[in-house]
């Protein structure tokens, strides 16, 4: 949850910097101290048999990675680009996943000495074995499993439904038998990343237990060492009701309670969204306020080319109004009071909407709208150069 102290840090920055340029305010603001606090409390809450990895794709900015580096046990990377970002920063271990790995990326992963590579298909297994032989090495891998069931009902699912991810659970026995014929492949365990933005901690715990049970059953049946159970990420942010967040304490306590069941297994978590979403705020100044077909619209200097998430998910992004008292013009200031407003961006498309008909007490041209929980899958997933508007300022606030 966003705390007042953090809101004040962001607002103080905007207050100080808003007038430094003639241009309307538009920025991403990341509170690195807040990120440090949040990541440390996640790490501290976990038992020793759980390793905490950061899934880089949620936010790969260098200051974010630098802030997390001393706290997390390692990084989950999904491309050679992410691998390079991490290995230029730290010697902490990386796990490499992704459904479409190029030979060059697999070779990069071998060279970088990644801890494990997820194998997502039989063909990928063959390719990796051939590369391992070429490089005279043995490669530690996790078999990425597409589960038949046991995946909770979350926003996006990669498993439990037909997707491009992983090896069908039904085929895992054949996969293991094939690996056992390969001297160059070392099966270290199983990978289960299955969902995105799960909001139900109890359901997440049941999912972890199912992953553990399956890993133990396969290990016993096929006499594997396979000590790693990678449960991926998928912890959600409640963008719709931010005051009813994912109950992390329920998950953390439940993980502690699993200790007697692990039988020497090590659980790896790869958290993206839940790690960085709350440290980031996207702030954009209102350029215009108007009525159209009896509805109210505010138009921003900014939009979905900076923050694509609400358009992609067809939701209203959580926001607050930062009131600005200065008004530079001699004529009247447009505003909307005690009404629902749609907050749109500066692009020439009706899809450029960040908030759809949500109530405000007052919103004026010249006010700044603060979109919270914009630290993950926000700037990095957006189409920055559509319409060639300038990029937002990117600001890191550190203490
Ligand atoms: C994206 C991804 C994650 C992180 O997911 P979040 O929902 O951001 O926590 C973890 N593991 C894998 C394999 C991923 O692709």
How do the strands and helices of this protein lay out in sequence?
Elements: H1 4-17, E1 26-31, H2 32-45, E2 50-55, H3 62-68, E3 74-77, H4 80-87, E4 94-96, H5 103-112, E5 116-119, H6 122-134, E6 139-146, E7 156-157, E8 167-168, H7 172-179, E9 185-191, E10 195-196, H8 201-221, E11 228-232, H9 248-257, H10 259-262, E12 266-271, H11 273-276, E13 280-292, E14 295-300, H12 309-313, E15 319-322, E16 335-344, E17 353-364, E18 368-371, E19 393-397
Parallel strand pairs: 1-19, 2-3, 2-12, 3-4, 4-5, 5-6, 6-8, 6-9, 9-11, 11-12, 14-16
Antiparallel strand pairs: 1-13, 7-10, 13-14, 13-18, 15-18, 16-17
Helix pairs in contact: 2-3, 5-6, 8-9
Bound molecules: pyridoxal-5'-phosphate.
Task: Give the averaged pLDDT, no decimals.
Answer: 94
CATH topology of the largest domain: TIM Barrel
How many domains?
2
Do you know the CATH architecture of the largest domain?
Answer: Alpha-Beta Barrel
> Helical residue percent?
25-40%
Report the total helices. Answer: 12
Global Rg: 23 Å
Total beta-strand segments: 19
Question: CA-to-CA gap between the ends?
Answer: 19 Å
- Give the DSSP E fraction (strand runs of 2 or more residues): 25-35%
Shape: elongated
The structure class reads alpha/beta
CATH class of the largest domain: Alpha Beta
Structure ligands: pyridoxal-5'-phosphate
Descriptive notes:
This protein is an alpha/beta fold. The chain has 2 domains: 2-29 and 278-397, Lyase, Ornithine Decarboxylase, Chain A, domain 1; 93-271, Alanine racemase (TIM Barrel), CATH 3.20.20. Helix content is 30%, strand content 27%. The strands form 3 sheets. Strands 1, 13, 14, 15, 16, 17, 18 and 19 form an 8-stranded mixed sheet that branches. The chain has an 8-stranded parallel β-barrel with strand order 2-3-4-5-6-9-11-12, surrounded by 5 helices. A two-stranded antiparallel ribbon has the order 7-10. α6 links the parallel β5 and β6. α5 packs across α6 (122-134). The radius of gyration is 23 Å and the shape is elongated. The mean pLDDT is 94. Pyridoxal-5'-phosphate (PLP) binds at residues 55, 57-58, 76, 78, 97, 193, 196, 232-235, 270-274. Pyridoxal-5'-phosphate (PLP) is lined by residues 55, 57-58, 76, 78, 97, 193, 196, 232-235, 270-274.
């Amino acid at each position: 949850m966003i705390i007042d102290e953090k809101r004040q840090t962001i607002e103080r920055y905007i207050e100080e910097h808003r007038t430094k340029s003639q241009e309307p305010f538009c920025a991403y603001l990341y509170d690195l101290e807040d990120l440090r606090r949040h990541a440390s409390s996640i790490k501290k809450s976990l038992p020793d048999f759980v390793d905490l990895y950061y899934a880089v794709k949620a936010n790969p900015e260098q200051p974010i990675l630098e802030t997390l580096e001393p706290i997390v046990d390692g990084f989950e990377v999904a491309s050679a680009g992410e691998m390079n970002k991490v290995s230029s920063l730290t010697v902490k271990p990386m796990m490499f996943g992704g459904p479409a790995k190029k030979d060059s990326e697999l070779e990069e992963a071998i060279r970088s000495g990644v801890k494990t590579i997820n194998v997502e298909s039989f063909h990928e297994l063959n390719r990796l074995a051939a590369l391992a032989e070429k490089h005279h090495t043995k490669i530690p891998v996790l078999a990425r499993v597409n589960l038949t069931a046991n995946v909770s009902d979350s926003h996006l699912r990669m498993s439990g439904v037909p997707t491009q991810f992983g090896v069908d659970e039904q085929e895992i026995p054949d996969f293991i038998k094939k690996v056992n014929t390969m001297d160059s492949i070392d099966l270290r365990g199983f990978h289960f990343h299955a969902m995105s933005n799960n909001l139900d901690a109890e359901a997440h715990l049941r999912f972890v237990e199912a992953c553990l049970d399956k890993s133990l059953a396969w290990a016993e049946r096929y006499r594997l060492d396979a000590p790693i159970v990678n449960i991926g990420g998928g912890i959600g942010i409640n963008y719709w009701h931010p005051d009813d967040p994912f109950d992390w304490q329920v998950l953390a306590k439940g993980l502690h309670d699993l200790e007697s069941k692990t039988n020497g297994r090590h659980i790896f978590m790869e958290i993206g969204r839940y790690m960085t979403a709350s440290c980031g705020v996207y702030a954009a100044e209102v350029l215009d306020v108007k009525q159209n077909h009896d509805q109210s619209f505010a138009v921003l200097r900014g939009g979905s080319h900076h923050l694509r998430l609400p358009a992609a998910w067809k939701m209203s992004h959580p926001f607050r109004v930062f009131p600005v008292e200065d008004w530079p013009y001699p004529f009247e200031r447009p505003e909307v009071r005690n009404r629902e407003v749609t907050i749109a961006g500066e692009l020439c498309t009706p899809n450029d909407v960040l908030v759809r008909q949500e109530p405000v007490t007052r919103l004026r041209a010249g006010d700044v709208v603060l979109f919270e929980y914009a630290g993950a899958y926000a700037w990095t997933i957006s189409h920055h150069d559509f319409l060639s508007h300038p990029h937002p300022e990117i600001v890191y606030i550190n203490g």
